[in-house]
Amino acid sequence: MSPICWKSLLGVTLIALAPCAATTATAFTACQVTDTGGIDDNSFNQTAWKGVLDAQEALGIEGRFLESQAETDYDANINSLIGGQCDIIFTIGFLLGDATEKAARANPDQPFSIVDFAYDPAIPNVLGQVYATDEAAFLAGYLAAGMTETKILGTFGGINIPPVTIFMDGFVRGVDHWNAEKGDSVVVLGWDVETREGLFTNNFDNLDDGRAFAQNLYDEGADIVLPVAGPVGLGSATLADELGTDKLKIIGVDADLYFTDTERQHVYLTSITKRMDSTVAQVIEATMNGDFAGGLLVGTLENGGVDIAPFHDMDASVPDDLKAELEALRAGIIDGSIPVDG
Amino acid sequence: MTSATEGRLLGRSQIEDLFIVPAFALVAALVIGAGVMLATGVTFSTIGQSYVALLRGSVGSVNAVSETLTAALPLVLAGLGLALGFRAGLFNIGAEGQIIMGGLAAVVAGVALGDLPAIFALPGALFAGALAGALYASIAGWLKAATGAHEVISTIMLNLISYRLLDYLLRTPLIQKEGRADPISKSVPDAAELPKLLTFIDINLRLHAGIFLTLAMVFVAYWLLFRSKLGFEFRASGENPVAARVAGMNAGLTIVLAMAIAGALAGLAGANQTLGVLDRATPGFSAGIGFDAIAVALLGRSHPVGVLFAGLLFGALEAGGRQMQVDAGVSIDLIGIIQSLVIVFIAAPLLMKTIFPWGFRRSDAP
Hints:
Chain A has helices at 3-17, 44-59, 73-81, 97-106, 133-147, 162-182, 207-219, 232-243, 257-260, 276-288, 320-335; strands spanning 29-33, 62-66, 88-92, 112-115, 126-131, 152-157, 187-189, 191-192, 197-198, 224-228, 249-254, 268-274, 295-299, 306-308. Chain A is of the alpha/beta class.
């Protein structure tokens, strides 16, 4: 950098230093690196961040986050949180798996916790948080099959990675279960459980894609669509909002989108919730108490780590029989009498 | 820029263009950036904190300098290529696509050559990156030379094609990582990696040998542009295509060559990322570098030395922006706003001269 730039930068510093308050030091700092969806994606990253915020409220910790704008940011962002300022670093998403592993092996004293990634063998300073999302998605699939008018459902994903496709697997198998029980023939467009091929936007940030993919599925006859792509699904919700919910309904993922996407809350039939907020807060509390250990934390229907959200505005349109069947199904999945993994 | 001082390393008016205008532009952008933060309800103390963080995160420690340089390298490399094109009168928007093709080719070559010693594997992978970038850019060059298709349109379209091509190629068995269903390439073997330079200080420092490549390319670009016959032809075609043609220069060949060299440099920028930073190719590994590099080339006034400093400035903003987010909780989007403001102000040197008249020698005022 030229001497002149230096001078001007220093000038700025002097001005800036004057009103600069000292950072208050708190006992515990939890840091989070998002994937490219961003901290305000209304679903995936935001839910995990809510866990930090909840802990901030309940336990008086300090929370910091870094948003990744591109995949090139993962290493750099994790890197800039290393150096003793974070008591634990949360990395949000499967795609940060390699970057987290690299950083964890280079810094064995720094506790990490990654959402949606399980290392085999486990790394001693990384706690993976994974979710049996297919259990909840199975319920959503059964529900959607019971609600569709056209007998055609649609789904699409962000990227063809296990934490995304597990939603689609559960959804399709829930529909299959409905078909088997009722002798019906509801079809799901966008995911083939056997060939592991389907519709993918190949990103987690382009809302236009969410709209276009939902439009394509709608044109093919689908009247309920499950987008599994974080904020991309908001684009699908916009389309449903414009078409009207009698033509197209959306099933949300990760958070209860009725509460996070309040402008379009009426388009959501339900949401397949993945309670990253509760597991993240649990991990923070355990780490504060000195109980951090690497390994695996699994969220299930049984422990409330995954679930389907209430029907909210659509509650009246879901038949009582269907609600009762869903309750029975839930009990069956929890006690293992109904297998969700095909 | 048509001054008589062109061939000299730096003339007085170039110093003003290259350093004083950007410096004032940066100050003006930071002041307006503070205004934007105020308007969005950020407190004074947080604004102060965030600018301290910006400085600390860009030059305040060994790690900060390492991050600034790491972020700057691909911007400088791609920026050099674009600057060369601009000098030849070609407004190449295609660096992003050329980065993608170059970065991917470097990974493929690196994987293929991975068993050889590093002295063959690394140059081979870099060469593959440069070659792929050059070939991809030549398509636009050839289209322009042969059919008159405007390079702005054709390079933008080639960018779009490259995104999809990358998605597709990353899922072909030759390239895709074993055991993965998503588009992600195999890892680059150690022999083909650009070695990290500072891990002996701290294992987390990411600065890699791409810095030597980049500095060498700054020199090569300078020599090519101002000391070689080819560079003279580039500049002549850029200044006045008709005169260049009448003087006996082959306009079509000049266009294709200028695009190819620009593409080779952008391809090296991609190889720099995949071999030095990421160790693999993924969708979106280009991360908009090709577009930021347009700003870097313009900011550097299409002069190789200017591009170097502009790239460093953008690298510093990127590394510092990360720290701003960590320390002050200010959105990363704000860094984007400051970057854009810097460019707006630099694109308007007259405005800078009006706001800060004491910064410029009066006799240089137009």
